[in-house]
Amino acid sequence: MGTGVVVRQVLRYAVRNAFSPFHFRRWHFQPLCISCRLFCSSDIQTSVQSAQHSRELHPLSGKAATELSLHSLRDMGFTDIQAQQIWESVSAIRGSSAAKQAMSTLTVLFGLGLNPSSVLKLLQKCPEVYTIKDSQLQKRIGNLRKVGLVEGSLQRVVAHYPQILTVPVKTVKNVALFLREKCLFTSQQVTDILRDCPAIVHEDLAQVEYKFQYVYFRMGVKQTEMVKARLFRITLDEVRCRHCFLERRGLYQTPDKKGQTAIINPKLESIFKADQDTFLTEVAKASIEEYDVFQRLLAKEWQEEEQLYGNIEAESSDYEDEEEDEAEQSGRSGYIKRKKK
Hints:
Transcription termination factor 4, mitochondrial, MTERF, single chain, transit peptide, mainly alpha, nucleic acid binding, MTERF_sf
């Protein structure tokens, strides 16, 4: 009987534990939590896979700001035709490797305040700008500001003569220093020259100095009039030709030491700033045929002068060589005589 009581208590305990709420939650809710974790993991994996797939489909979506593409060009404000023109020009210069560099260049030009049409015209005039690093462009633009080109003037100079961006900073500084020290232009006059005649940065400074001295001494004109006339826009030959043409027609006279002339000379601005037709009709009072004949005759004179000057230089050089030979021979003979003694 005692054994039966013990058996009944054991069975009651087993049944009570089998249907307890704790075990029900443990055995029936645990699979639900596991399924939730599996469900969440599958969602994350699906999202990662979809993101990877998206990147594979759009490999340049994250590089639009740094690499050149038609889409990035349109985002910068270019039309479809303009974007295509830039893309083709970059590909023709350096190929696909130029894309990132060209994008940086465009960014600098837009930062300068130029609009898409101006940028396109600039690059069509001077495609070499594509090949310049953005850091170099910024330094060169900054140096142009230092020499006095303010906002407005700077943009006009760059748009009109973009080749100035291909010139190193040191060269521009040397030209400005040369104009101040050798030609005695003021700082403001140097700024005006660089603004009106930016191509001077590519000229031979010896030719620049000769042109300045010709106008200053031969024509008797001061620096202020040179700047107004935009003297450095025209070639040295054109300066000499127009001046000589007026002089031989009795329409121009070199001032004396007091700056006086027997006639009233035309202003330098009317001589050099005007185009050829205006110069002939309003200043020289001559026909184009007369000027053409005069140019050919003057060119022949210059050629003869150069030949004569070359012959004189050659004779002078031969004479100096003969003197050196005689000096050497006399020195040797004196040495021999002293040695014999």
